[in-house]
Amino acid sequence: MQVSGLKYRITLPEQVQQMKDEKVVKPGNRVDNIKVFQEGKWIDLDPEKEYNILSNSFIVKHEGDGYFWFKKYGTELKNTYTTFYSIMAEVIDTQKILSPKAKDGRLEIVH
Fold first, then answer.
1. In which domain, by residue range, is 89 found?
2. Residues 52-82: pLDDT tens digits?
3. CA nearest 18: which of 29, 7, 5?
4. Average pLDDT of 73-94?
């Protein structure tokens, strides 16, 4: 999943999580070094802390691309009724140009 405000490493040869009937039957260890961007700096993700996320209804409400856990385990779900297209239109209207930034290392893949 493409993310913002989150940084992590995926080590492809490592064990992938195994699921059965939407339950983890064997945890994986492919993803590690997870950090969140808070107050201007990258800090280690705290597994005991709850974090707010923002996503689209395809992923959260309709379990798109197999991401069932947002709907199953999420709390306090709120719909902003804002579309990706309206956000992009506002950015283009304000900035007049879309200029992608350089890669920032949010995702590291180790083969």
1. 57-98
2. 888 888 888 889 888 888 888 888 888 888 8
3. 29
4. 87
